[in-house]
Amino acid sequence: MTKFKIDKSGKSPAIFVKDFIPVLSSREFNKLIKYKTNVRFCLHKSRKNKLQCMINLIKKGSQIKMHKHNKEEVYCIFKGNLSISIKIKNKVKNVIMTEKKNKILYMPKNIMHSIKTKSNYCIFLELTSGPFSRKNTRYE
Questions:
Q1: What are phi and psi of 10, to 5 degrees?
Q2: The pTM is what?
Q3: Contact 43/55 with Cβ under 8 angstroms?
Q4: Are 35 and 78 in contact (CB under 8 A)?
């Protein structure tokens, strides 16, 4: 990966990969782990793309509070573990995703959920439809 642009306007820095056909190697994953904060490698070119594809790093102690989107999401774990709390009709179900078990989760739209990691860090793929708009997310 040679070309990228950093966008710090979101809740965590977004690194937009500018290569025509982005390929992330183990070296890029190792660079992610060294970040002191949560960060996203965005494989899509802009917030306007119809497919939003991000490699996310969440550090230990970080928690994304309960929220929902009006779009579906897919999570796929690469390293670490991710605890996803899913709230349906005031009942909370916890799903633990790890690199060895429960690797992929499909989150339907309008389902309240929160995510956190108990490992030192978690790296996962997140896919959703675009374009990106903050208006598509509602917090509890």
A1: -95, -170
A2: 0.87
A3: yes
A4: no
